[in-house]
Amino acid sequence: MDKHLMNGLHDMKSEKSNDNHILDNFSHVIIEYHLMREFILYRNQHMSHVYVVPSHSSPFLWFGVMFVHKGLYRGIVLRFTVVIPNTYPNCEIPKLIFDAIPFHPLVNPNTGELNTSVAFNEWKSSVNKIWQIIDYSQRVFQ
């Protein structure tokens, strides 16, 4: 094969892989933007006694703490992590996992995961928002 043709094909492959890398980075930035928008939606809810912050290392992890002031669980402090699937926004329901596992019928005693299927049959990012999971967890303990 012609040397110039071979070099041209090699250059095209390099450009294509570079384009894929740029697209991957671009899509990652878009996903991070959507997650930060979700975080702003959470903050706009002005939830009392619940504080959440995205992880510094990954936008797919949010850390939170909830202070329960009513009901049977009054006086407890619950630390939790919201785990957002890497396939966000077209994903399964994000998981809310408690650090110290509270005794509750909707919390898995082995994993600390809150059963969100009661409130969310399926996850549609156009309809469902992450703040709704946090709000649901707060209502479960009141």
From TrEMBL:
- Coiled coil (UniProt feature): none
Which classification does the entry list for the species?
Answer: Eukaryota, Metazoa, Ecdysozoa, Arthropoda, Chelicerata
The UniProt entry, under InterPro entries, shows:
UBC, UBQ-conjugating_enzyme/RWD
Q: Outline the extent of the UBC core domain.
A: 30-142
Q: What is this protein called?
A: UBC core domain-containing protein
One short Pfam family name for this protein?
A: UQ_con
